[in-house]
Amino acid sequence: MIHERLEKLASEIERKNKLSEELEKLKSQELARLTEELQLEFRRAGDELAASHARVQDLQQVMDELAAAGSTCPVCESPLEESKKQQLLKERREQLEAKIKRAAELEAHVKELNKNLNEKLKLQRRAQLLEKEIEELPAREAERSQLSQQIQNFERELPNVREATRKLTIEVEGVRKEAEALRGQFTATKHSLQLRLDLDQLEIERKQNFTEQLRVQRELQQLRRAYDEARAKELERHHEELIRIHERLRTELVGKEQLIVEKRKLIESIREKRETIVRCEVEVKHLENAARSLTTIQAALARTQATMRREFIDGVNEAMSELWESIYPYGDLTGIKLAVEGGERGSDYVLQLRDRAGNWIPVEGVASGGERTDACLALRIAFAIVLAPSLSWIVLDEPTHHL
Questions:
Q1: Exposure of 6 by Cβ count < 10 A (0-12 exposed, 13-18 middle, 19+ buried)?
Q2: Series of mean pLDDT values for 10-residue runs along the chain (403 residues)
Q3: Which of 3, 130, 323, 345 could covalently link to 300 via disulfide, CB atoms 3.0 to 4.6 Å apart?
Q4: Boundaries of each Zinc-hook domain copy (predicted)?
């Protein structure tokens, strides 16, 4: 997600900024100069050490030859007295001891130089690695700026999404209430279906009665032939009663069938509305998830903005501290900074100067006109240095009036 990528970029940029600070401390050019000087000193000491070892060997050889010589000098073959021989041996021994001592000192010095040279070479390699590490810093900052812009766009859309979610929630609540009403109607429809079953049972009874009526008619005809007129009239009255019952049942059956058709339509409408409710609930959940994601992104953006503002203020204050002595070369005001007062949402920026006692005082309302002008000029130049570090010049439009 965007906020995760933004937090990762912020962490990477912070790490590369620390690497940049470490690289600044290493000072590659100064390190290269020191390394070159150490290499020269190492070669010089090595050459001197080699010469000392060679001289030690020569002196040892001369002493061996002189000790083995008799009364004749081994070099010039002139007569050599014993006292002169001992004197020469003593001189050569002193020279040998001095050279051995010097060689030991040079060996220790060469070891120390070699150790320092290795350390400087390691630092050089570290500086090269750091330079490669921070090469991607501008690209990462540009990517962070792009992601911040995307988050700002999301924030602008967030109120619309929340309003749409609120309206949809109201609509869903209305649909839910309507569904409750439809559930009541559905219960009534079930009752109607039960009535339908009852009507079916009545229809069966009607058919049975109709069959019974036919049977009675046949019996009546038989009875008319077999019995008297009074019995026939009684059967006729019974027949007419059965006809009235049949008509009443048929009328009730037609009404129940119409009621069943209406209830079926109502059931279909309830089913469609229930499907609509399910779709609305899914959409509401989707919008709620989107709103939670946007809230998380907003929190990440706030943290990133606070970090960027703190880094920007630190950079401006550092630049103003370097410029202040050049702009204001007097001893009554020894420093300048841009301070942030208030909380994160209600913060304000205050330009302050430091007096001889080390107290920070606001420029507005305390400093003189010239001091305010110098402070504003330092602030302008610091902004230019921080916001456009690669630009080597600055243009001020009527600075006397608009600082």
A1: buried
A2: 59 59 53 67 76 77 67 60 70 77 77 71 62 62 67 70 76 75 71 72 75 71 62 76 84 84 86 87 85 85 84 92 91 91 72 92 87 91 86 63 49
A3: 3
A4: 28-125
Which alpha helices (DSSP H) does 81-228 contain, by range? Answer: 82-133, 137-226
| Contact between 154 and 294 (Cβ < 8 Å) | yes
What is the reported pLDDT for 343? 60
Q: Provide the pLDDT for residue 124.
A: 59
What type of residue sits at position 41?
A: E
Q: What is the rounded distance in angstroms from the CA atom of residue 328 to the CA atom of residue 371? A: 8
Count CA atoms within 13 Å of residue 318 on its CB side.
8
Q: Which of 24, 5, 10 is nearest to 304 (CA)?
A: 10
2-141: CATH, from 3.40.30.10, 1.20.1070.10, 3.30.450.90, 1.10.287.510: 1.10.287.510
Of 233, 13, 249, 254, give the one whose Cα is nearest residue 145: 13
Provide the 10 A C-beta neighbour count for residue 254: 11
Question: Two tokens at 310?
Answer: 């703190």
Report residue 74 as tokens: 């081994």
CB–CB of 327/378 below 8 Å?
yes
- pLDDT the model gives residue 352: 93
301 by Cβ neighbours in 10 Å (0-12 / 13-18 / 19+) ranks as buried
